[in-house]
Write a structure and sequence with these properties.
This protein has 8 helices and no strands. It has 2 domains: 102 residues, Rna Polymerase Sigma Factor, Chain: A, CATH 1.10.1740; 88 residues, Arc Repressor Mutant, subunit A (Orthogonal Bundle), CATH 1.10.10. With 194 residues, the protein is mainly α. α3 crosses α4, α4 packs across α7 and α6 crosses α8. Helices cover 63% and strands 0% of the residues. The chain is globular and about 55 Å long.
Length: 194
Amino acid sequence: MNQSMRSKTADIELWIRLVKEGNKDAYQHVIEFYQLPLYRYVYQLLHDREESEDAVQDVFLQVFRNMDKYSRQISFTSWLYKIAYHHCLNLIRKRNGLLSRLHLFRREAVTTDYDSSLRVDEILRGLSLEEKQIVLLRVVEELTFEEISLILDCKAATVRKRYERTRVKMQRNYVNEEGKSNGKEPWASISTER
């Protein structure tokens, strides 16, 4: 972990401690720090701007109300994303079968030597919600397998194995769609390490 990241983590833990001690104003720093990445994450799951904005507000309220339940045994980021994940799953369930509308990415992101304009949502076509979750948390949010395991309530080794299978599935889907692989490994940049 670099010096800047350690400093941000220390700041977050300070703000959390202040909130737990009754300083409600300190929570504004937590919101400002996490609002954009949390919105991106939620939007990737819900694919609806207004619903995502409401969901982020709901998650921040839920986190604030349950702040006394947070312990430093896991990172605050993992705890926050776990709450967001479960909140979004509940919203998705309420949609009753609209999972096919989910698109995790709406921007140019993972590019390959094949085609630099390849859209990530095209790469993720055909993946289950769980597979998309793992890719999103791993590649976009850059969480470790351990952090993802806390969010998804499973073992880190299970997440690692599912991620590797998903990576192979994505590669196979891409090669099948393109009809060729040009002899290059498009997913080499999506590491299984960490």
